[in-house]
Design goal:
By secondary structure, the protein is mainly α. The protein has twelve helices and no strands. The chain has helices at about 1-20, 20-35, 40-50, 60-80, 85-90, 100-110, 115-120, 125-130, 130-135, 140-170, 170-175, 180-205. α1 packs across α3, α2 (about 20-35) packs parallel to α4 (about 60-80) and α4 (about 60-80) runs antiparallel to α10 (about 140-170). The longest helix is centred in the C-terminal third of the chain and has 28 residues, at about 140-170. The radius of gyration is 17 Å and the shape is elongated.
């Protein structure tokens, strides 16, 4: 069952980006930043692979991803501002949000303040949930949006660049794989498996 779910997630990501291109990247990153389990570690490297193929442009891929992050984060910010942590804890389990994830984001925000929104966007796991404590604290929306965009721009560019570099080095990897598309799908499936497994593990502990 889990393997089928992971395959559906990876297949959905690939299909959306292949068909909608930049708008698809923004849409998927918006969903991910709204804390619905579509890992950016899958979305952006595949986008970088399409840069290698000549379908997309790297800087536009990064901007599209960052814009999507801002839009999706507005949703999470609003939930934190008007619903608070009780609402998140009550319904978050349906989108794989655990108390452990919220605690991690809360600690970062309380310890480092508003700059955490920028730094947190460069860190796996923290980046996904950092909008909640910012909303609870009613951080000024314009600063929240600016920090989110800048941090997300670096994150999206970096992951897309990794996908691009994998494409550029396919001649070396080709010794071990017959088709690069198959290797890309395999990597995406592994990343999606790790993402879903991690969240399910923390939900069971909660």
């Amino acid at each position: 069952m889990l393997e089928k779910l992971i395959g559906l997630i990876a297949g959905f990501v690939i299909a959306v980006i292949s068909r909608m291109q930049y708008a698809g990247i923004a849409l998927l990153m918006g969903i991910e930043s709204a804390c619905i389990p579509l890992p950016s570690e899958v979305i952006m490297p595949f986008s970088g692979y399409l840069v290698y193929k000549g379908t997309l442009v790297l800087w536009l891929v990064a901007v599209a991803g960052a814009v999507g992050c801002v839009l999706g984060s507005w949703v999470a910010y609003a939930v934190g501002a008007w619903g608070g942590r009780p609402l998140i804890e009550r319904y978050g389990k349906y989108v794989l949000i655990s108390s452990h994830d919220l605690d991690l984001a809360d600690r970062w925000f309380q310890r480092h303040g508003e700059i955490t929104i920028f730094v947190g966007r460069l860190l796996p796991v923290v980046r996904t949930f950092i909008a909640f404590p910012a909303g609870v604290a009613r951080m000024p929306l314009w600063r929240f949006s600016l920090y989110t965009f800048l941090g997300s721009l670096i994150w999206c560019w970096g992951l897309a660049w990794i996908g691009l570099r994998l494409g550029q080095h396919w001649n070396t990897l080709g010794v071990y794989f017959h088709r690069f598309d198959g290797a890309i799908v395999a990597v995406l499936l592994l990343l999606a498996a790790w993402y879903v497994w991690r969240h399910l593990r923390h939900l069971r502990r909660s």
